[in-house]
Amino acid sequence: MASSVSSQHDQVLVEVKSFARVLTLNRPKQLNALSLHMISRLLELFLAYEEDPNVKLVILKGKGRAFCTGGDVAAVVHDLRTGGWRAGANHFMKGYTLNYLMATYSKPQVSLLNGIVMGGGNGASMHGRFRVATENSLFAMPETAVGLFPDVGASYFLSRLPGFFGEYVGLTGARLDGAEMLACGLATHFVPSAKLPMLEAALCAIDSGDPEIISSIIGRYSEQPSLKEQSVYNRLDVIDRCFSQKTVEEILSALEREVVDRRDRWISATIQTLKRASPTSLKISLRSIRVGRFQGVGPCLVREYRMVCHVLRGEFSNDFLEGYRAILLDKDKNPKWEPSKLELVTDTKVDRYFSKVNNEDGEDLKLPVRSKFKLPSYVVAKL
Amino acid sequence: MDRAYQRTRILTNHLILNSPAQTDCLTSNECLSYSPPELSEKYAFDVSEMRRLMDGHDVEERDRLFGLIIQSKLFNPRVRGGKVFVSPDYNQSMEQQREMTWKRIEYLLERGVFGGWMTGKGEEVEMKRFACFEVLGLFDHSISIKLGVHFFLWGGAIQFFGTKHHHDKWLRDTENYLIKGCFSMTELGHGSNVRGIETVTTYDSNTGEFIINTPCESAQKYWIGGAAKHATHTIVFSQLNINGTNEGVHALIAQIRDADGNVCPNIRIADCGHKIGLNGVDNGRIWFDNVRVPRENLLNSVADVSPDGKYLSAIKDPDQRFAAFLSPLTAGRVNIAVNAVYQSKVGLAIAIRYALTRRAFSLKANEPEVLLLDYPSHQRRLLPLLAKIYAMSFGANYLKMLYVRRTPQSNKTIHVVSSSFKATCTWSNMQIIQECREACGGQGLKTENRVGHLKAEHDVQSTFEGDNNILMQQVSKALFAEYVAAQKRNKVFKGLGLEHMNKPCPVIPSQLTSTTLRCSQFQMDALCLRERELLNRFVADVSQCLARGESKEHAFNTNYQLAEDLGKAFSDRAIFQTFVEAEATLAAGSLKDVLGMVRSLYALTCLEDVTYLRYGYLSVDNATAVRREITKLCSELRPHALALVSSFGIPDAFLSPIAFNWIDANSWSSVQH
């Protein structure tokens, strides 16, 4: 677990390029999973850059084949087991604070998503102004398969995708490629990976943080990729019909009705995925996305923090630890969820995940104060 | 002096090129910038808890429907200032607006929103349906009226006047929109006076059919929502003439179009044309040229005609029989009252949010300009209206509960309360939206900012389902009847909240302190006092007329001013009572404290009504004290203004650009995109 200070420092590489700062997530063996140290380091850097008039733009990328695969679940579980739920929650508190800072950042962040971007990796990129996908991009929010729920502000950004695509992506953990990310709006641009070095050089050469200018520079290297014929994004009608249903149970029956009409491998696979996921996760995830649709990004993160505290405390379900065991530790891919069925996860149980943590040491997420910075209008719209 | 100096300086700067002052003017920190009120205003109470209290029921159902609307392209989403807003495109032609309304209904139908609306039973179903109407009304008045005609008027008529075979035949098809219903009651010559309608129905015992006829132009059915384009069936109200005897107004089902939308033989339909609002509803006019319908089409829960043509009715009294036919209108009235409250919420949320971000004039030179809501005058304009809408929300929740828990015994109460609340809430709504429009200045005139447009869309509320003035007269008449009944039988008052009449008359202290003015018992006393005194006076004046040998009708007509004051007094007191009851359910805490201030502001605003001075219920000194206290309450509620409008639970997308970043929404770059 312990790593030396020097190697920790190398986990986020910093390059100073006139008015740009290029930050590289550098834990390629772990697919750049965010350690607590990396989160702290990013927070530190972002806070400092905001005060620094010589920084106008922050570029974030990952080393190796992943941008970032999310939080360091193994470390969370370790801290949870040794230090109690509060120690586990600390990871999330730091992470969500970083997500909020990025979402309300006064300077543009450009994330180069040239590889896998999952879970917490999305939290570190989707809130920024520019998200550049490539042909190597692979997006997913796979939390329901490991007993968690799409967090890191996903209830904000997934709920704002077209139609009910956000519910689909959040509940099934569906994987999207770069073209799909661009089509649904998760990515703002698509640039072939071969052109990334040129794009990066161009961005590092500018002396402005004007989003219009940055956008036009990225635009110069962008392409309009076509969706694969099999793309889920071509199935929006089915997704809207089914994932707009009121409850997870109704979503499943709507999907089942669709396969009665015609055999369809994709729908059958979707049903299977939902049936494999944690019933508790599915229900709290759906509620989270639905509630998040009407909340600003700050309130979304505050609520998600309450939810994750309840998950870690394991009062109602231990699916998080079970998911970790089955998917990441033993890798038997056979989690024993408890409650085991959707109908056992009643509305009252779901309600509890959304309540304030009732404990003397339980406290709400404290969002950093943003009023001292002049926030760009695209940030103001998210508050 | 200061202003003159400033002007001179500005003009000088214009004239002297390259002066440093001019350069300063061009730097960005001299510009106005939008600062979201969320960053500066603090919530002293839990707004989601307040929202639950205000909405009262089905919060999750509401949010699901909000989500269905926001996430669909059919609801005309537009991005302004980085946020999505939904609202119909009112710049479309009448025909296009009608088609869009219908497409939106089809979308909601496919999503199962109407499931159980006709075939389901019980309190829960009915409350859920009300919640859905409130949400849809927040999007657009046309869609809620178009649905309301189909479900509440057409569907309601079948439920209330029909018997089992009608229910079996029509309700499921209505719920699934296999047929599209409308409701033909009003005629060109008769609106509120339904008993005077001229359409005639006779019975042909040879064929077992009824024959519906429009005998003259004034008998044409008018304003029939859905008739101009979409409706396939209608409820027809007509004078039922059996063997030469007019049995009064009865309701039948008639088909007016086939499934392909062709108008049926012997039916003529014309369009009511473009209206000042509600153009998404296809109001039409219908003439019946001896249209034959089968005998079973008579909605026969109240009265029937046997195959051989004999008139049969369980209700012998024609007055009661007629009253029974008006019951579906009650549901409509409940809907209208509640919807009016929600429209006011839209206006207030927009105007108050704007007032928290828009500045005008500096108090001193070189000082920042002052936020609109920091002006006491602006607070005085908007905050009493905010308090009023809080009160009316509780009133609306009470009214809905009264309706869904109706029994034959509660019919009278429902009629009186729904009539008075419908009139009060809709009149207030127009007053509130007008004030909100003005409070937004020129921005209020843009259709996309909603608040001004709502006026045209909702003007009709004071007319349909009963003209407000007539409804209020009915309230006074009902109160008169209660009074006379209690007197005659020497009994106590029971029901309609009139129990306070049995107690001694409350006394208003000669010197009103702030503490007294904020005490709910005092507030209740003051409202009861006015109602009691006006009722006594109204009864005395009407009785005097009767003693002089005038008819009852004439007596009521001549005492119309008192009748109006009394109707208002009843309504204010009844609404206040629901506020006090809602407040009583809360545990002590910041939410209850703020709500207490809101209640006081509402009550004192009622006490500012001219009747208190006209009839001397308040001394001039006391009236002054009331006015002073209102100003104080306004300034104390100012810090809670954002939290109070956020508690309405209306998603941002249902407000408008001026409620958010109105600078960015109007930026040059937004013109280009």
TrEMBL record, chain A:
Enzyme Commission code: 3.1.2.4
InterPro entries: ClpP/crotonase-like_dom_sf (IPR029045), ECH_dom (IPR045004), HIBYL-CoA-H (IPR032259)
Catalytic activity reported: 3-hydroxy-2-methylpropanoyl-CoA + H2O = 3-hydroxy-2-methylpropanoate + CoA + H(+)
Keywords associated with the record: Hydrolase
Pathway(s) where this gene product acts: Amino-acid degradation; L-valine degradation
Domain (Enoyl-CoA hydratase/isomerase) ranges: 21-354
TM regions (residue ranges): none
Matches recorded under Pfam families: ECH_2 (PF16113)
Function per UniProt: Hydrolyzes 3-hydroxyisobutyryl-CoA (HIBYL-CoA), a saline catabolite. Has high activity toward isobutyryl-CoA. Could be an isobutyryl-CoA dehydrogenase that functions in valine catabolism.
Family: Belongs to the enoyl-CoA hydratase/isomerase family.
Protein name (database record): 3-hydroxyisobutyryl-CoA hydrolase
Biological classification of the source: Eukaryota, Viridiplantae, Streptophyta, Embryophyta, Tracheophyta
Automatic annotation (TrEMBL), chain B:
Protein keywords: FAD, Flavoprotein, Oxidoreductase
Pfam families, A to Z: ACOX, ACOX_C_alpha1, Acyl-CoA_dh_M
Domain Acyl-CoA oxidase C-alpha1: 329-479
Protein origin, superkingdom: Eukaryota
Domain Acyl-CoA oxidase/dehydrogenase middle: from-to ranges: 182-291
Domain Acyl-CoA oxidase C-terminal, first and last residues per copy: 524-655
Cofactor(s), by name: FAD
Gene3D superfamilies xrefs: Butyryl-CoA Dehydrogenase, subunit A, domain 2, Butyryl-CoA Dehydrogenase, subunit A, domain 3
Family listed: Belongs to the acyl-CoA oxidase family.
Descriptive protein name: Acyl-coenzyme A oxidase
Organism expressing this protein natively: Hibiscus sabdariffa
